[in-house]
Amino acid sequence: SYPSASCVMSSASAEGVALAPAFVGPVVRAPAPVARPQQGTRPSQDSAATGAASTLQMFMLGTAGAAACRRAARGVSTAARKAVPRAKMGQRLQGRSVTSLQAEAQPQRVAMQATAVAEAPTKTYEVGEKLHGWTCARVEYVKEFGCTGYLFQHDKTGAELLSMVQPADENKTFSVVFRTPPENSNGIAHVLEHSVLCGSRKYPVKEPFVELMKSSLQTFLNAMTFPDRTCYPVASCNLKDFYNLIDVYMDAVFFPRAVNDPLVLAQEGWHYEIEKKDDPLTFKGVVFNEMKGLYSNPDALHGRTANQSMFPDNQYGVDSGGDPKDIPSLTFDYFKDFHSKYYHPSNAKFWFYGDDPADARLEMVDQYLSQFEKIEVDSQITVQPKLTEPRRIVEDFAAGEDEDISKKIMMSINWVISEGKEDLQTSLALQFLNYLMMGTPASPLYKALVDSGLGSRVIGGGLDDGMLQATFSVGLKDLKEDDVPKVEELIMKTLEELAEKGFESDDIKAAVNTIEFQNRELNTGSFPKGLALLFAANSNWNYDKDPFEALKFEAPLEELKARLEKGEPVFQDLIKTKILDNSHKVILESRPNKQLGKKMEEEEKATLQKHRETLSEKDIEDLINETVKLKEIQETPDSPEAMKSVPGLELSDIPKETPKVPTELLSGEPTVLRHALPTSGVIYTDVAFDLSRVPEELIPLVPLFTRALKQLGTAKGDFVSLTRRVGMSTGGISASTICMNKKGDSEPVAYLFMRGKAMAPQISELSDLMQEIALTTDFDNKDRIVQLASQARSGAQSSLVSSGHMVANASLAAQTTKAGWLSGQFSGVEQYKFLSELLKRIEDGGWEGVLQQLKALQACIFNKASCSILNITSDAEHLDPAQASLEKLASNLPADESSGPVLLDPTLGRRADGIVVPTQVNYVGKGGNLYESGYEYHGSALVVSKLLGATYLWDKVRVVGGAYGGFCRFDPRSGDFKYLSYRDPNLGQTLETYDGAPGFLKDLELGEDELTKAVIGCMGDVDAYLLPDAKGYQAMLRHLLGEDDEYRQKVRDQILGTKVEDFHKFGEALEPVIEKGGICVVGSAEACDKAKEKYGLSLTSPFAEE
C-alpha cells in the first residue's frame, strides 16, 4: 500500500527540465531524499533528471516515490510560534469586511504532543567529557542554523555520533548510516536495506516497519540505499513516538530476522517461483521487480550507464540498487556476510537533531552498542583513477515495437571533475558555476541546448557532488542520429565561450541574491530540516572528512563573493581546469531498440529454462513446496503476542481539537486571505485565477500556457532579462494549476495560481513582476513555444513509462467526475496526445491559430473576474504592505470580456483501458465511485482506506505478488475509490486481489490495540507537519473547497471515534466496484494482450508510429 519508487537523486526542477539547484550550503548540497508519503499520496519518477546528476541513487523501502515524497507536510519551529492578535468578527480592515475570523489568536501546534514532552535542552558538553559510554571529541556552534553540534566517539566500538542540539525545532530527527560499498551489481545493499526492516530480535513481527507506518505520528520514516552507503532516517515531533521509531530501527539494523531466515531474502530480493510442476519457472521478489521497472525507464538507464562508465574501476562502477540480470546471483551466505561486515557499530555513524534531551540520545544508542566489540571494517571508498583520454560509449534502450524512433537518441557528456572531496570554498564555487550555467531556462549552457532545436529536453542535471568525486553531466534527448555530433560540438563551444568571456555581472548578482535568499529562508520543503542537514554533513562525514564543514558555509561564501568583487575569474578558471582541460570524460549515446524489450524477456525466460533443465523432479517439487511455504508465511498474520511488541501511542496522545491556521478573511473582489505566521521576514503570496471561463476547446492548452509564463519575454524585455530581474529582486515566481472535486458540487474547482515570495522590502518588486508576467507575456515566439511543447511532450512520455500508476489513477478519475476529466486533460495520455498533435499542427503551418489561442487564454484567465483570491502568509507586521501590493496588481487587471463561466459537459462512464508502453512491469488500477452506490462519507473512511492499503494490499500485492507497491486512494470530496499497483509483475492476479478487498474488510476483526494504532496512524496524516508557507496555502485551498474548521472538526471526531463496524460498512460500500468498477492498466504489449479478452481491455499505444 505504500508503493515505493527508486529515487534518483537529482536537481531536476518541478517543471521536468534538468535545471541546476539554486542553492549553496547544506540544505541543497546534498540532494533531498524522497520522503515516504502517507496513504493516498502517490510516488513518481522525475523523468528529466538523467546523466550524472541523476546517478546518486537512493532506493526507498516500502512506499516512497519521487513525487510522493514532496507532500505538503513541512515543519515550523515551536520557538518561532507566537500568538498574533487579529481583528474581531465584523471589524473593518483596510476597507474590507472581516466575515470569518477566529475570535482568539491561538495558533495550535500541528504536530501532536505526547505524554512525554521534550524540554529545551540546556546541557552542554566539553571536549574529553565522558557520558554513557561516549567521549566528546569536538564541539562546534553552527551559527548558520543557530544550533550547537557535539561529535562523540563510542568508547567500546569506535562508532561516531553527531548530536545537533536545536531547542527551536520540535521536528526531531535521527539516523544511522553505514558505509556499504558494493562489489558487484547483485543489489546486496539494496536488498539488505529492505530486509532488515522485516522483523528483529526485539520486534518479532514480519514487518515492524509497516506497523509503524500504520500507527506512528512520524514526519519521516524510510530507508535509503545510496551508491556507497545505506541510511535509516526517522523523524517525529512527538518525543514518545520518536523514541519508539529509534528503538525499532536500532534493533532492526543490528539484530534483524533476515540474517537467520532465508525466506526474507526470497521475499525482498528474489526467488524462483513455481506452483505446479508443469508451470514455467519465474523470478519473483520486491527488489527484483523494482529494478526491472527502473531499467525500463530510458532516462534512468542512461543516467546509470553514465555513472558506471565514469567510474569503471571503483565501487561506483556497479549498481548498488541491483541489475535485474545480476540480482538472482545473490546468495544467502553472501547476504549474511555483507550484514555482519558492514552493519556493525564500528562502521556506523549516528545523527540526532532537534529539541529532544541530549543526554538521552547517548544513553539510548549505547544500550545497543555496548553489546558489541570494536572490529576493523574496511569500507573505504576508493578514488577512481583519472582517465587519460575520453571514452565513447553507445548503449541501447528498449523502445516500443510500434514507436517512431527516428528522433529518440539520448546523448550526454560526462566528466569526473575531482580526485576526492573538494574543500568548501571550491565546492561553493562549483555550485555557483553550476547554477549560472544550468540553473534557469535563461542560463547560457541550458539555453544554448534548448535554442538549438536539436532535441526535446536537456538531460544530465549538471553538477553532482554527493559522492566521493564530483561529476558534471549535460546533454539532450530525442535526437536524430545525424544531430548527435552537433550536440557535442555545441556543448563544447558554449563552454569554451563561457571560459573566455565569463558571465554577465547581473547574472552573478541574481545568482547571489537567489542563493542568499534560499539560505535565509531555510525552507526544506517536503522533509525535516534535520534530515537536510544530515545529508549535507554526511556528504563529508561518509568519506572521513569534517562533517561540520558542510554546514558552516557562511565564511567561505563571503570569501567567494569577495573574490568575485575583485574581478577574479573564478568561474572561467573552473570551466577550464575542471571541464575543458579534463581528460576524464565520457560521451554516452543511448539508442532506441525496438527488439530489445522482447530480447530481454526472451533472455530471462532462457535463463530460467536453462536452470530448470538442471533440476530433477525432486528439485522441482522442493521449489513448489518452498513457494507454498513462503506464501503461507506471507499470508499468516503475526500473533497477538508478537504484535504487542511493536511500540505505539495512546489515543490520549492525540489532541481532540483540529489545529487551526490563523486566517483573516476579507471579503471583496477579490477575496483576501491573510495568515500571520512567523516567516523570518519572507512574504509568501498566492494569486488564484479561476479557470471556469476557459472554453472547453482551450483546456488542453492550459498546461503549456502555464509552463510558458516566465519562460517568454514580456513588454520589458526577453525572458533572459526577466529571469535575471526575478532572481535579483525576489525569492522566485512560479505558476501552476490545480483541479479538485468539491463535496456536494459536480463542477470542478480549477485554478491557475501565480505564486511568489520575497523579503518584505521587495514586495512591491514582486507584485510588479507578477503583474508584468500575467499581462504582458509575449506569446508571439514560435520557436520558444515549440521548445516548451517539445519539453513537455518528452516529460509526458517519460511519465507514461515510469509513473504508470499516476496515469492509471488519472484515467480512472476521468471516468467519473468533471474534475477528474479536467485533470486528465492536463496530464497523462490525453496531454501527451494533445502535445503531439499541437507540434504537428505548428509544423504544418498552424502557428497563427495556436498563437491566437494562447492570447485568448491570457485574456480569459488574467482579468478581474477570474482573479478570485489574494493569499498572503507572513509575519504580522508585513501583511498590510503585502496586501496593498497585491491589491494594486488586482486593480490593474483588465475587465472580463468573456461570456462568463463555461459549463463543462464531458462524456463520463466506466471503461476498461489498456495503455501499452515499453516496460517490463505493469501498473494496475481499478476503481469506482462509492457515493453512486449510496455510501455517505464518514471520517472513518480515511482510517479504513489507510489500513486496507497497509495490510491487505501490502501483503497481497507487494509481499505475495512481488510488486513494488500496492495501495488505494479514497477521495472524500467525490467518493472515488481506486486500487493501484506499482512496478507489478502481475496483472490479472492483482485485479483479482482487488476484488477480494471488500470481503477482507467485511470479515475483519480488530482488537482494541490494533484499532487504536489504525486511528493514530491516520491522524498522523491528517495533522501533517507544515511550514508557514504550506499552512497558508492549505488554508487557502480549504477556503476554496468550503472546508471550514467546523467541518474539519466533525471529520476529526469521526476519525477518533472509528469503530470496527465502520470497516465492515466500508467493505460493503466497496462491493459494487467488483462488477461495476472501471479498469486502467499501463503495461507491456504482452501483458495487455493476454488480459484483453478476459477483462475487456480497450488497448491503445500512445507511442505508436502514425
Low-confidence stretches: 1-121
Profile the largest sheet.
9 strands, mixed
What share of the residues does DSSP label as strand, in percent?
15-25%
The amount of helix comes to 40-55%
**Distance between the ends:** 38 Å
What is the subunit organization of this protein?
single chain
Annotation keywords:
1106 residues; alpha+beta; 36 helices; 40% helix
How would you summarize what this structure contains?
The protein is of the alpha+beta class. Helices cover 40% and strands 18% of the residues. Helix 18 runs antiparallel to helix 29 (940-960), helix 23 (782-802) runs antiparallel to helix 26 and helix 29 packs across helix 32 (1008-1022).
Record the SSE blueprint:
Elements: E1 6-9, H1 26-29, E2 56-59, E3 92-93, E4 96-101, E5 130-131, E6 134-142, E7 147-154, E8 160-165, E9 172-179, H2 188-195, H3 208-215, E10 220-221, E11 224-225, E12 229-236, H4 239-254, H5 262-268, E13 271-273, E14 282-284, H6 286-294, H7 298-310, H8 332-342, E15 348-354, H9 358-369, E16 391-398, E17 409-416, H10 424-438, H11 444-452, E18 457-464, E19 471-479, H12 484-501, H13 505-521, H14 529-541, H15 554-565, H16 570-580, E20 585-593, H17 596-613, H18 617-635, H19 640-643, E21 664-667, E22 671-676, E23 682-690, H20 702-708, H21 719-729, E24 732-742, E25 745-759, H22 763-776, H23 782-802, H24 804-813, H25 818-826, H26 828-843, H27 847-861, E26 867-874, H28 879-891, E27 912-916, E28 923-929, H29 940-960, E29 965-970, E30 976-982, H30 988-995, H31 997-1002, H32 1008-1022, H33 1028-1041, H34 1045-1056, H35 1060-1076, E31 1078-1083, H36 1085-1095, E32 1098-1100
Parallel strand pairs: 8-15, 16-20, 22-26, 27-31, 27-32
Antiparallel strand pairs: 1-2, 3-4, 4-21, 5-6, 6-7, 7-8, 9-12, 9-15, 10-12, 11-12, 13-14, 17-19, 17-20, 18-19, 21-22, 23-25, 23-26, 24-25, 28-30, 28-31, 29-30
Helix pairs in contact: 3-29, 3-32, 10-15, 10-16, 11-12, 12-16, 13-21, 18-29, 22-28, 23-26, 24-25, 29-32, 29-34
